[in-house]
Amino acid sequence: MATIKRALISVSDKTGIIDFAKNLHDLGIEILSTGGTAKLFRDNNIPVIEVSDYTGFPEMLDGRVKTLHPKVHGGILGRRDLPEHVSAMQSQNIPNIDMVIVNLYPFEATVANPNCSLEDAIENIDIGGPAMVRSAAKNWKDVAVVTDASQYADVLRELQSTGGATSQATNFALSVAAFNRISNYDGAISDYLSSFNADGTRNPYPAQVNSRFVKLQDLRYGENPHQSAAFYRDTNPAPGSLVTAVQLQGKELSYNNIADADAAWEAVKSFDSSACVIVKHANPCGVALGKDALEAYSKAFQTDPTSAFGGIIAFNTTLDKAAAEAVSKQFVEVLIAPDYTAEALAIFSAKANVRVLKIALPEGGNTAWEQGRNSHDTKRIGSGLLIQTADNHEISVNDLKIVSKKQPTPEQLQDMLFAWRVAKYVKSNAIVFCGNSMTLGVGAGQMSRVDSTKIAAIKAQNAGLTLKNSVVASDAFFPFRDGIDVLAEAGAACVIHPGGSMRDEEVIAAADEHGLVMVVTGIRHFRH
């Protein structure tokens, strides 16, 4: 146990610090503090010794230099178990400092403001704070370091239960948290400054990228049993993203469960109307809109009942009893919804292995993060990383260009927009047949677009669904007319695709020859 007799407090975020300091004083712990924090304590009748009085050296350079002093760092770094350290400190009249409570200048919040200037950013780079935190964290056997207000309650509880001491286990955990905080802080500074070019302009892709993630859990294994794995989240996760999910019941999520659940959740939350998405092996095998959860599920399931077996099912609306009864008749690995009725949860409680996740939908906003989406995507390659802006592009009817002689009906336009949105979440080459706001056949991940078209048609045939008068979405242009010939033969009436092929005229002519409606978007949705 490390007995706490003297604590140094210097905090930018004052949340909870008054109550914490009062309790430290009640435990007989002497408090040292810097200017602003010391004034706050004096205003609240908490006895405090200002650091400048303690060191005999004034704060200077607009507060840039206040704790960078041997009497501060010697008191933190001195080892109590080494006689030579103890002797050196005594000879220089340096008392022990047993606890350091420091949080840092708000650099991350400062640069998150789009109007932040480089000068503002530089002034919010903390120097003394990280130095004290690192010193205390290094000397964790003798010094407790507290870097976040969320730690106050647990630390205080231990101090009160031990008469003013902290355990080695607590100090080590606080030390690790402190080094993690410094790592995140320095990483944020590096990311920001690395984004500046020599002429002062900013590059959206910094010269150095510092990834920072927090482990949520170890996983039983990775994609295959011989691979180990763990699940991490961003240090600042987007609202409504999969990492914010609360698991209400079921077995532990596996690596593949998480990957497929993310694909299903990202797809289903992109719809405004009540929707259901069923995913198998990272691809939607059924997507539909309905007046309620039951109708949406029933239509989505019809697309490919065989592939839906053991799939991931996601809703963007509350799952009620009727929908739960329908879903419970099938084998499902993971179920996701923003909420569940008590009756729905009771139904699944009888299926203890089903993983039931609850994720609050984001309430909207202007940025991708506020809308619960990633702003950038990454792909790991051999000793490297690919980074791109996320495919968050959306289209409306006004963005469509009708290139065929035949004109679409309003209903066909809506079905094409639906099919286009689904295709965005299907692995390339993607072909999606739809009708009545539901998928009818999905062809995914083939090397040939014609093969994807044929597979989608076969899927519909196997499910007993007709493709007559259906609409088709293709995630990229048709390089030849053969794809149009195949989908027309299957019964499609409309096709939506990006256009842009050197043979567009040939492809459009094929559509006119078959009497199809053809709409181009000018936007491609490859998903590799």
What does it look like?
- This protein has 528 residues and is an alpha/beta fold.
- 37% of the residues lie in helices and 21% in strands.
- It folds into three domains: 2-194, Methylglyoxal synthase-like domain (Rossmann fold); 238-388, AICAR transformylase, duplication domain (Cytidine Deaminase, domain 2); 397-520, 3-Layer(aba) Sandwich (Cytidine Deaminase, domain 2), CATH 3.40.140.
- It has 19 helices and 23 strands.
- A hairpin with a 2-residue loop joins strand 16 and strand 17 (384-389).
- Helix 4 runs parallel beside helix 8 (128-138), helix 8 (128-138) runs antiparallel to helix 10 (168-194) and helix 14 (321-328) packs parallel to helix 15.
Give the SSE layout.
Elements (H helix, E strand, L loop, with lengths): L1 E2 L2 E6 L5 H10 L3 E4 L1 H9 L5 E2 H5 L14 H8 L5 H9 L7 E5 L3 H6 L5 H6 L4 H11 L5 E3 L5 H11 L2 E2 L1 H27 L18 E7 L9 E6 L11 E4 L5 H14 L6 E6 L2 E7 L3 H11 L1 H4 L2 E5 L5 H8 L3 E6 L4 H8 L5 E4 L17 E6 L2 E6 L11 E2 L7 H14 L7 E5 L2 E6 L5 H14 L7 E5 L7 H9 L1 E6 L6 H11 L2 E4 L8
Parallel strand pairs: 2-3, 2-5, 3-4, 5-6, 13-14, 14-15, 21-22, 22-23
Antiparallel strand pairs: 1-7, 8-9, 10-15, 11-12, 11-13, 16-17, 18-23, 19-20, 19-21
What are the low-pLDDT stretches, counting only 5+ consecutive residues below 50? Answer: none
Number of domains: 3
Given this structure, which CATH class of the largest domain is correct? Alpha Beta
**Mean pLDDT over the full residue set:** 92
In CATH, the homologous superfamily of the largest domain goes by the name Methylglyoxal synthase-like domain
Helix content: 25-40%
Q: Proportion of β residues?
A: 15-25%
Q: Please state the second-level CATH architecture of the largest domain.
A: 3-Layer(aba) Sandwich
- Total strands: the figure is 23
Could you say which overall geometry the principal axes of the C-alpha atoms support?
A: elongated
Characterize the main sheet: 6 strands, mixed
Distance between the termini: 54 Å
Count the helices. How many? 19
- What is the gyration radius calculated from CA atoms? 30 Å
Instruction: Find the structural class using helix and strand composition.
Output: alpha/beta
Q: Tell me the CATH topology of the largest domain.
A: Rossmann fold
How do the strands of the widest beta sheet line up side by side? 10-15-14-13-11-12
